[in-house]
Amino acid sequence: MEITSKKLKSFCRNRSGELKFSFRFFRKRRWEQKKKKSPFADGESLKKQPKVTHS
User: Fold this and answer.
1) Where is this region: Disordered (predicted)?
2) Tell me: the pLDDT tens digits for 1-55?
């Protein structure tokens, strides 16, 4: 039982890590695409966006 639970825990941890990484990568790709599309991608909008995501 102990070995199985250990395996399950490590598997869950790996899976959550993968999900987090892919999600971050997806957000970054989408943000970059938005930047490219937007004609008003100047310094001000770039400064504002990270603040919004932080809070």
Assistant:
1) 33-55
2) 566 677 666 665 666 666 666 677 778 888 787 777 666 555 555 555 555 555 4
